[in-house]
Design a protein that fits this description.
By secondary structure, this protein is α+β, with helices and mostly antiparallel strands. The protein has ten helices and ten strands. The chain has helices at about 40-45, 85-95, 95-105, 115-120, 125-130, 130-145, 185-195, 195-205, 215-235, 240-255, and strands at about 10-15, 20-25, 30-35, 55-60, 65-70, 75, 150-155, 165, 170, 180. It is globular. The termini are far apart. InterPro entries: Aminoglycoside_PTrfase, CcrZ_PhaseVar_Mediator, Kinase-like_dom_sf. It comes from Lacticaseibacillus paracasei subsp. paracasei Lpp123.
Length: about 260
Protein backbone atom coordinates (compact mmCIF):
# COMPACT_ATOMS: atom_id res chain seq x y z
CA UNK A 1 0.00 0.00 0.00
CA UNK A 2 1.45 3.38 -1.01
CA UNK A 3 0.83 5.84 1.82
CA UNK A 4 2.86 8.68 0.26
CA UNK A 5 4.71 9.28 3.51
CA UNK A 6 7.87 11.30 3.85
CA UNK A 7 11.20 9.49 3.69
CA UNK A 8 12.28 8.08 7.01
CA UNK A 9 9.09 6.14 7.73
CA UNK A 10 9.18 2.38 8.24
CA UNK A 11 5.99 0.29 8.07
CA UNK A 12 5.03 -3.21 9.09
CA UNK A 13 1.61 -4.92 9.18
CA UNK A 14 -0.20 -4.56 12.49
CA UNK A 15 -2.43 -7.61 12.03
CA UNK A 16 -6.14 -7.79 11.36
CA UNK A 17 -8.10 -9.50 8.62
CA UNK A 18 -8.30 -6.52 6.25
CA UNK A 19 -4.56 -5.86 5.96
CA UNK A 20 -5.21 -2.12 6.27
CA UNK A 21 -3.49 -1.51 9.63
CA UNK A 22 0.20 -0.83 10.11
CA UNK A 23 2.74 0.01 12.75
CA UNK A 24 4.54 3.08 11.49
CA UNK A 25 7.82 4.32 12.93
CA UNK A 26 9.18 7.80 12.26
CA UNK A 27 11.98 9.53 14.18
CA UNK A 28 11.90 6.70 16.75
CA UNK A 29 8.20 7.37 17.40
CA UNK A 30 5.58 4.68 16.90
CA UNK A 31 2.20 5.32 15.25
CA UNK A 32 -0.85 3.20 14.46
CA UNK A 33 -1.66 3.83 10.78
CA UNK A 34 -4.85 2.68 9.14
CA UNK A 35 -6.36 3.02 5.69
CA UNK A 36 -10.01 4.11 5.50
CA UNK A 37 -10.75 3.86 9.22
CA UNK A 38 -14.23 4.58 10.52
CA UNK A 39 -15.14 8.16 9.51
CA UNK A 40 -16.09 9.16 13.03
CA UNK A 41 -12.77 8.08 14.55
CA UNK A 42 -12.22 11.68 15.67
CA UNK A 43 -15.31 11.53 17.89
CA UNK A 44 -14.16 8.25 19.41
CA UNK A 45 -10.82 9.87 20.16
CA UNK A 46 -12.48 12.90 21.77
CA UNK A 47 -14.53 10.57 23.99
CA UNK A 48 -11.28 8.72 24.97
CA UNK A 49 -12.76 5.45 23.71
CA UNK A 50 -9.97 4.83 21.19
CA UNK A 51 -6.30 5.85 21.32
CA UNK A 52 -5.74 9.50 20.46
CA UNK A 53 -6.13 10.50 16.81
CA UNK A 54 -3.07 12.48 15.68
CA UNK A 55 -3.79 13.32 12.05
CA UNK A 56 -5.81 12.39 8.97
CA UNK A 57 -4.84 12.81 5.31
CA UNK A 58 -6.16 11.78 1.91
CA UNK A 59 -3.68 10.22 -0.52
CA UNK A 60 -3.77 10.31 -4.33
CA UNK A 61 -5.56 6.93 -4.55
CA UNK A 62 -8.53 8.45 -2.76
CA UNK A 63 -7.87 6.44 0.39
CA UNK A 64 -7.88 8.21 3.75
CA UNK A 65 -4.94 7.53 6.05
CA UNK A 66 -5.25 8.06 9.80
CA UNK A 67 -2.53 8.06 12.44
CA UNK A 68 -3.20 7.29 16.09
CA UNK A 69 -0.86 7.10 19.02
CA UNK A 70 0.66 3.65 19.38
CA UNK A 71 -0.03 2.18 22.81
CA UNK A 72 1.90 -0.78 24.13
CA UNK A 73 -0.68 -2.76 26.05
CA UNK A 74 -2.56 -6.03 26.21
CA UNK A 75 -5.90 -7.17 24.86
CA UNK A 76 -8.44 -8.49 27.33
CA UNK A 77 -8.70 -12.19 28.07
CA UNK A 78 -12.02 -13.97 27.75
CA UNK A 79 -12.35 -13.96 31.55
CA UNK A 80 -11.78 -10.20 31.76
CA UNK A 81 -14.68 -9.46 29.43
CA UNK A 82 -17.15 -9.61 32.32
CA UNK A 83 -15.35 -6.97 34.39
CA UNK A 84 -17.41 -3.91 35.40
CA UNK A 85 -15.02 -1.59 33.52
CA UNK A 86 -16.04 -3.28 30.24
CA UNK A 87 -19.73 -2.81 31.02
CA UNK A 88 -19.19 0.84 31.93
CA UNK A 89 -17.29 1.61 28.73
CA UNK A 90 -19.99 -0.08 26.67
CA UNK A 91 -22.57 2.07 28.47
CA UNK A 92 -20.47 5.14 27.64
CA UNK A 93 -20.57 4.22 23.94
CA UNK A 94 -24.30 3.50 23.95
CA UNK A 95 -25.21 6.67 25.86
CA UNK A 96 -23.01 9.07 23.90
CA UNK A 97 -25.15 11.62 22.07
CA UNK A 98 -22.01 12.87 20.26
CA UNK A 99 -21.24 9.46 18.74
CA UNK A 100 -24.87 8.93 17.78
CA UNK A 101 -25.15 12.34 16.11
CA UNK A 102 -21.92 11.99 14.16
CA UNK A 103 -22.65 8.44 13.02
CA UNK A 104 -25.96 9.65 11.64
CA UNK A 105 -24.19 12.50 9.87
CA UNK A 106 -21.82 10.13 8.06
CA UNK A 107 -24.67 7.84 7.04
CA UNK A 108 -24.06 4.95 9.41
CA UNK A 109 -25.95 1.78 8.62
CA UNK A 110 -28.88 0.67 10.78
CA UNK A 111 -29.14 -2.79 12.30
CA UNK A 112 -32.55 -4.07 11.26
CA UNK A 113 -33.53 -7.36 12.98
CA UNK A 114 -35.36 -8.72 9.94
CA UNK A 115 -32.41 -8.01 7.64
CA UNK A 116 -30.03 -9.59 10.15
CA UNK A 117 -32.20 -12.72 10.25
CA UNK A 118 -32.38 -12.91 6.45
CA UNK A 119 -28.60 -12.56 6.18
CA UNK A 120 -28.13 -15.35 8.74
CA UNK A 121 -30.40 -17.76 6.86
CA UNK A 122 -28.75 -17.11 3.52
CA UNK A 123 -26.49 -20.09 2.68
CA UNK A 124 -26.86 -21.52 6.20
CA UNK A 125 -25.39 -25.07 6.09
CA UNK A 126 -28.27 -27.50 5.58
CA UNK A 127 -26.79 -30.27 7.72
CA UNK A 128 -26.28 -27.90 10.66
CA UNK A 129 -29.75 -26.38 10.28
CA UNK A 130 -31.24 -29.88 10.50
CA UNK A 131 -29.97 -30.40 14.05
CA UNK A 132 -33.01 -30.23 16.39
CA UNK A 133 -31.82 -27.39 18.66
CA UNK A 134 -30.53 -25.34 15.75
CA UNK A 135 -33.72 -25.92 13.78
CA UNK A 136 -35.84 -24.77 16.73
CA UNK A 137 -33.69 -21.67 17.28
CA UNK A 138 -33.86 -20.68 13.62
CA UNK A 139 -37.63 -21.07 13.75
CA UNK A 140 -37.86 -18.98 16.94
CA UNK A 141 -35.88 -16.15 15.32
CA UNK A 142 -38.61 -15.93 12.70
CA UNK A 143 -41.56 -16.12 15.11
CA UNK A 144 -40.69 -12.95 17.02
CA UNK A 145 -38.59 -9.94 16.08
CA UNK A 146 -37.18 -7.62 18.76
CA UNK A 147 -38.27 -4.00 18.72
CA UNK A 148 -37.23 -0.99 20.78
CA UNK A 149 -37.55 2.75 20.36
CA UNK A 150 -34.04 3.12 21.80
CA UNK A 151 -31.36 3.35 19.12
CA UNK A 152 -27.69 3.72 20.00
CA UNK A 153 -24.25 3.44 18.46
CA UNK A 154 -23.38 -0.29 18.44
CA UNK A 155 -19.77 -1.38 18.02
CA UNK A 156 -20.81 -4.58 16.28
CA UNK A 157 -17.76 -6.77 17.00
CA UNK A 158 -17.01 -6.96 20.73
CA UNK A 159 -14.45 -9.75 20.53
CA UNK A 160 -12.12 -9.67 23.53
CA UNK A 161 -9.22 -8.91 21.18
CA UNK A 162 -10.81 -5.55 20.32
CA UNK A 163 -10.36 -4.30 23.90
CA UNK A 164 -6.96 -2.82 24.75
CA UNK A 165 -5.56 -2.13 28.22
CA UNK A 166 -2.74 0.41 28.17
CA UNK A 167 -1.47 3.10 30.50
CA UNK A 168 -4.07 2.29 33.12
CA UNK A 169 -6.93 2.86 30.67
CA UNK A 170 -9.25 0.65 28.65
CA UNK A 171 -9.84 1.30 24.95
CA UNK A 172 -12.23 -0.21 22.40
CA UNK A 173 -10.79 -0.49 18.89
CA UNK A 174 -11.69 -1.84 15.41
CA UNK A 175 -14.88 0.06 14.56
CA UNK A 176 -15.35 -1.33 11.05
CA UNK A 177 -18.77 -2.81 11.86
CA UNK A 178 -20.20 0.15 13.76
CA UNK A 179 -23.91 0.79 13.21
CA UNK A 180 -27.00 2.29 14.81
CA UNK A 181 -29.25 -0.19 16.52
CA UNK A 182 -30.66 -1.81 19.61
CA UNK A 183 -28.08 -1.71 22.46
CA UNK A 184 -29.15 -5.29 23.20
CA UNK A 185 -27.27 -6.27 20.02
CA UNK A 186 -23.93 -5.38 21.64
CA UNK A 187 -24.89 -6.56 25.11
CA UNK A 188 -25.96 -9.95 23.78
CA UNK A 189 -22.67 -10.24 21.90
CA UNK A 190 -20.74 -9.99 25.18
CA UNK A 191 -23.10 -12.04 27.33
CA UNK A 192 -23.58 -14.90 24.84
CA UNK A 193 -19.85 -15.32 24.26
CA UNK A 194 -18.41 -14.63 27.70
CA UNK A 195 -21.15 -14.60 30.32
CA UNK A 196 -22.82 -17.02 32.69
CA UNK A 197 -26.12 -16.53 34.54
CA UNK A 198 -24.30 -15.10 37.57
CA UNK A 199 -21.79 -12.88 35.77
CA UNK A 200 -24.37 -11.64 33.27
CA UNK A 201 -26.49 -10.10 36.02
CA UNK A 202 -23.42 -8.40 37.51
CA UNK A 203 -22.42 -7.11 34.07
CA UNK A 204 -25.86 -5.64 33.42
CA UNK A 205 -25.85 -4.01 36.86
CA UNK A 206 -22.49 -2.36 36.10
CA UNK A 207 -23.83 -1.28 32.69
CA UNK A 208 -26.86 0.28 34.37
CA UNK A 209 -29.55 -1.81 32.67
CA UNK A 210 -32.76 -3.00 34.29
CA UNK A 211 -33.32 -6.62 33.25
CA UNK A 212 -37.06 -6.63 32.60
CA UNK A 213 -38.83 -9.21 30.46
CA UNK A 214 -38.55 -7.13 27.30
CA UNK A 215 -34.78 -6.72 27.58
CA UNK A 216 -34.40 -10.38 28.48
CA UNK A 217 -36.23 -11.46 25.29
CA UNK A 218 -34.15 -9.10 23.15
CA UNK A 219 -30.92 -10.37 24.70
CA UNK A 220 -31.88 -13.98 24.01
CA UNK A 221 -32.90 -13.18 20.42
CA UNK A 222 -29.66 -11.37 19.62
CA UNK A 223 -27.63 -13.93 21.57
CA UNK A 224 -29.04 -16.71 19.38
CA UNK A 225 -28.34 -14.57 16.30
CA UNK A 226 -24.68 -14.04 17.24
CA UNK A 227 -23.98 -17.68 18.10
CA UNK A 228 -25.83 -19.06 15.09
CA UNK A 229 -23.78 -16.72 12.90
CA UNK A 230 -20.58 -18.06 14.50
CA UNK A 231 -21.72 -21.63 13.88
CA UNK A 232 -22.55 -20.79 10.26
CA UNK A 233 -19.13 -19.23 9.60
CA UNK A 234 -17.21 -22.03 11.31
CA UNK A 235 -19.19 -24.77 9.53
CA UNK A 236 -18.86 -23.05 6.14
CA UNK A 237 -15.07 -23.00 6.56
CA UNK A 238 -15.08 -26.57 7.92
CA UNK A 239 -13.63 -25.54 11.28
CA UNK A 240 -15.38 -28.39 13.06
CA UNK A 241 -13.67 -28.00 16.43
CA UNK A 242 -14.86 -24.39 16.51
CA UNK A 243 -18.37 -25.52 15.55
CA UNK A 244 -18.39 -27.84 18.57
CA UNK A 245 -17.20 -25.05 20.88
CA UNK A 246 -19.86 -22.60 19.72
CA UNK A 247 -22.54 -25.30 19.89
CA UNK A 248 -21.61 -25.74 23.55
CA UNK A 249 -21.98 -21.98 24.12
CA UNK A 250 -25.30 -22.07 22.30
CA UNK A 251 -26.60 -24.95 24.45
CA UNK A 252 -25.52 -23.10 27.61
CA UNK A 253 -27.46 -20.04 26.49
CA UNK A 254 -30.52 -22.17 25.78
CA UNK A 255 -30.26 -23.88 29.16
CA UNK A 256 -30.13 -20.55 31.03
CA UNK A 257 -33.66 -19.59 29.96
Amino acid sequence: MEFELDSGWSLQPAGGSTGSAFLGVYANQKYFLKRNASPFLAALSVEHITPRLLWTRRVSTGDVLTAQEWLDGETLTRQQMMLPVVAKMLAQVHHSSLLKRLLRQVGGQVLDPEQLRIALLQDFPVDVAAQPKIKTALHDLKQWLPHTDVQTVCHGDLNHKNWLQAGGRLYLVDWEQVALGDPAYDLADVLAHYGSPATSHQFLDAYGARLDEDLKRRLYWYGDLHLLHDIKVAATHQRFEEVAQVLHQFECLQASR
